[in-house]
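Ticket reopened. Same input as before:
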Amino acid sequence: MSSPYGLQITESCLICKLRNSGFFCDLPKPSLEDLERVKYASAYPQGAVLFVEGQSARGVYIVCSGRVKLSTTSRDGKTLILRIAQAGEVLGLHATVSGKPYELTAETLQPCQLDFVKRDDFLRFLQNHADACLNAAQHLSENCQSAYEMIRSLGLSHSVSEKLARLLLEWATDGDNTKDGIRIKVSLTHEEIAQLIGTSRETVTRVLGEFRDKQLAQLRGSTLLIRNRAGLEKLIGA
Amino acid sequence: MSSPYGLQITESCLICKLRNSGFFCDLPKPSLEDLERVKYASAYPQGAVLFVEGQSARGVYIVCSGRVKLSTTSRDGKTLILRIAQAGEVLGLHATVSGKPYELTAETLQPCQLDFVKRDDFLRFLQNHADACLNAAQHLSENCQSAYEMIRSLGLSHSVSEKLARLLLEWATDGDNTKDGIRIKVSLTHEEIAQLIGTSRETVTRVLGEFRDKQLAQLRGSTLLIRNRAGLEKLIGA
DNA sequence: CGTCCAATGTGCTGCAAATCACAACCTAAA
DNA sequence: TTTAGGTTGTGATTTGCAGCACATTGGACG
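Engineering reply: fixed in the latest deploy. New output:
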């Protein structure tokens, strides 16, 4: 047990308290013991870059705790955030499985504990453990799913309001219900929100202002309050 | 051997001449024999709808021959084509693996031979055959990959010209080199091209006209001729 | 050889959002 | 308290493209 960046590092997956259902590492004991042998646990500060798009795949990172931003950038510097990965997810899975370079850039949004597994160790691990392999397939499915959702948002929306409403409603599913509405911790800047829906920062500011005026939702500091869920749903044509 | 829709149906995967490297069904004999037992081979005419987004996942379709359009449609009828699947691909894999409804609609673009495998048969098959499971993971990776590419095209492009140029260059990789340039068979209408890059049909017509005038590329009937590849690459900022 | 319908080509108009350019904030360290 | 740097708020301007309307072509088929 050490604690850099204010984290409690759990060295062993077997006794890990962070583990949870749906986690990649939620595996039966024999597989878990094997995973244990090939993984390297470590802690990262906020803003650490795990890998950059275009690099050849070294292996996967399993998120034990913290949140990681997955993004892609065009030559002229415009960037798009694909997803914010949470605890339990596996980063760099597609690249590691397919052997192609990482397609995304991964950067921690806060201090994180991550397990790293080298590519060949990981592939061998998957070959020897059908349960883990199926797990991997499931995680890849989820990545596909979220990618498809993003494509729908980018390609089928008629306006930025619609895209933003979509995003807020997506967030709303894991928020707390209070008397004023649904309360969610977001800790993202307008800039980052813009990169999540493929628009400009100014437009996000404006549309959020609009939502505030119309009593639909408001973002103050890092907490988002959804005041009128039905109203937002109407915006996405539901 | 029967031959509806002008296809030669190969009933057995073991002796199948269509099989090729990279195909999902390119598996060692024991796995293939097991697959053989659970699959249903059949032929479909052009325009057949295999599944519709939102339906609960019945299982997977393996494309033996032909091309299948994978698309998604918004409530107001706007549709976006995610991908044109070729022989060797597996359709409905994410939904089948994750147990969630199909997220896409699959429709044949031409007479196709497809093998269908029921969901629980398929999952059991993956559990029992680590090689097939890894194969599935690889195919899912490729789906992710192409989804990410689409996201980049939709989210990071500055103009329709750029998106269209991207698409043409993507196609160019599997075209024939001739003295006039690269020749590719596309057989898609302007409408369908528009749905591939998330724009309107009129704009596609206009931009293609522009490309023709600038001697970059021309689409006549169902053959596309890339006359100036470098010129197209300049459009995407490469 | 005409008929018909889908696929293309083209002009015009309106508008949502990108972009530029600042002003007003906030909070975190010096 | 002051300063500085990253946020957020807002106006003015510009523009690419969707959307509509219609003309034209072309190919399948009786």
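The interface with chain A takes residues 72-76, 78, 80, 82, 93-95, 97-98, 100, 103-104, 123, 126-131, 133-134, 136-138, 140-145, 147-148, 150-152, 154-156, 198, 237-238 of chain B (CB under 8 Å). Helices of chain B lie at 29-38, 93-98, 119-128, 130-156, 160-172, 190-197, 201-213, 229-235. Please confirm and we'll close it.
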